[in-house]
Amino acid sequence: MSEIRRVGVVGCGLMGSGIAEVCARSGLDVLVSEVAPEALRAGQDRLTTSLAKGVARGKLSAEERDAALSRLRFTTDLGEFADRELVIEAIAENEQVKSEVFATLDKTVTSREAILASNTSSIPIARLGTATSRPDHVIGIHFFNPVPVLNLVELVPSLLTSELTATRAARFATQTLGKEVITAKDQAGFVVNALLIPYLLAAIRMVESGVASTEDVDAGMVLGCAHPMGPLRLADLIGLDTTKAIAESMHAEFKQLAYATPPLLSRMVDAGLLGRKVGRGFYDYSG
Ligand code: 3HC
Fold first, then answer.
1. C-alpha 229 – ligand 1 centre gap (Å)
2. 76-123 pLDDT, tens per residue?
3. Which domains does the chain have, with CATH numbers?
4. Is 193 a known active-site residue?
5. What strands lie across the sheet with 138-143, from one edge to the other?
């Protein structure tokens, strides 16, 4: 089994930049793509800020930060991914766009050994696999935000993923990146979001119906259950657009009310109040 050294990350948003960071910190050659130069610059800034935070917190040295930065390259052209041994797609939760990316990667990535992975939390891996001519090499590798801090990776083989692909992906996540792996079936939400999203939606409904304030709902879970952050602050961290997109995929899959988007969440997304990444969601981060 050849070791994976050249990684591509498609998308440099919250998750993509975190995934690129942990890959570069693990000594890998990392190529990151975004659709437009502005998005690429924003992603690059996020990544640099996170590395600086890691240094400030004593998690890595200034030399290690510089070495990680030297292993990262950025592009707006997926055509440059030809020599990648593993590509992790981490763009927005939109099935059509993701499928197009997988079809492009299928044509671009030359090694037939290469793994094409998605960081999706809710879109069926089998559908992304069938957008390619190599569904046996397509798998879900789902990270958690903030990626440099949270140790979990969910591994999601589809019905078409080969055992070798699953074994290599697991080895990459554990041995190369030092993450802990759990394996889940290819159904929307996998393990963590299947439990987390109904909880976040229930908290939003609580605020919507006036049971308690945003601050009190969050304080309830932080002080009463020792969660590191309350559900509304966590929804802000994930991004309210992402939270809504995951809920919609899960609702489409299971048709259960627990996954139905509360009107308050829809209106906040309509209004552009997407959470921490834009400076305002349930909380104001502009100050
Ligand atoms: N690199 C390395 N380590 C870092 C770092 C970086 N860039 N930034 C922070 N850290 C470390 C800190 O050093 C600290 O470690 P220590 O406890 O050993 O000193 C730890 O991370 C916490 O950092 P901070 O003190 O800066 O921050 P907080 O204590 O306020 O914690 C938080 C922030 C990590 C976000 C914490 O509140 C948390 O874990 N919240 C829950 C997040 C969560 O549930 N995420 C999952 C979302 S679901 C998801 O992602 C799936 C998707 O599909 C939706």
1. 10
2. 999 999 999 999 999 998 999 999 999 999 999 999 999 999 999 889
3. 6-183 (3.40.50.720), 192-278 (1.10.1040.10)
4. yes
5. 72-75, 29-33, 6-10, 86-89, 115-118, 138-143, 152-157, 180-183
